[in-house]
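Inverse folding, one chain.
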C-alpha cells in the first residue's frame, strides 16, 4: 500500500479527533488568533471542527465527508489565495520529498504575507488501532521545523512541544 492509500484507509476508518484536548491548537485558541476578515484554509480538516469558529474558512480533507471539499492537497486548486493555513496533524506522512512537496503546495495557496498554524507528530504511534503502525510518520522535530521554515522563507514565531508527542508551531512570512 502506498502512503496516500494508508493515510486514506487509516484516517477514513479508524482515526478520532483529539483537537479539543491540545494545549496550543484547540479550536478556540487558534480561532482567537484569526481576524474576522481573514480567509483560512484548514488542510486535512477532519471533522471540520474549526468551521463554527472561523468565519471565512474552507476545510479540505482527503477522506472526511465533513470537509467543505473532499480533495487531496496535491490536487487542490483554490479560486483564491488564503491569509492563514491550519495544518494540524496533516503534513507529517511520508519521506522528506513528500513533506517538502506538501509545504511548497501550502505556501503556493497562501498570500505573500501569511501564517501557518502547525501541529506535527514526532513519529509517535499512540492511536489505539493497530493500523497506526503502517502510517509512515515523518520524524518532525523543532530542528526540522526550523530547517523547512528557512528552506521556504518562513519565520517561526512560536514553537513548543504540545501534548501526546506533538509539536505546535506558528510560521509567518
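Residues assigned per position:
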Amino acid at each position: 500500500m502506498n502512503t496516500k492509500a494508508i493515510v486514506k484507509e487509516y484516517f477514513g476508518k479508524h482515526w478520532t479527533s483529539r483537537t479539543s484536548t491540545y494545549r496550543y491548537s484547540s479550536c478556540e485558541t487558534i480561532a482567537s488568533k484569526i481576524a474576522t476578515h481573514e480567509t483560512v484554509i484548514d488542510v486535512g480538516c477532519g471533522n471540520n471542527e474549526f468551521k463554527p469558529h472561523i468565519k471565512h474558512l474552507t476545510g479540505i480533507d482527503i477522506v472526511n465527508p465533513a470537509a467543505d471539499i473532499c480533495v487531496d492537497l496535491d490536487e487542490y486548486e483554490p479560486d483564491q489565495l488564503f491569509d492563514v493555513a491550519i495544518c494540524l496533524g496533516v503534513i507529517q506522512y511520508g519521506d522528506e520529498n513528500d513533506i517538502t512537496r506538501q509545504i511548497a503546495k501550502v505556501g503556493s495557496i497562501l498570500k505573500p504575507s501569511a501564517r501557518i498554524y502547525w501541529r506535527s507528530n514526532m513519529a509517535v504511534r499512540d492511536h489505539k488501532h493497530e493500523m497506526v503502525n503502517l502510517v509512515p510518520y515523518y520524524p518532525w522535530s523543532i530542528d526540522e521545523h526550523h530547517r523547512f521554515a528557512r528552506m521556504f522563507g518562513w519565520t517561526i514565531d512560536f514553537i513548543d512541544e504540545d501534548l501526546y508527542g506533538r509539536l505546535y508551531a506558528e510560521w509567518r512570512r
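The chain has a mean pLDDT of 88. DSSP finds four helices and seven strands in the chain.
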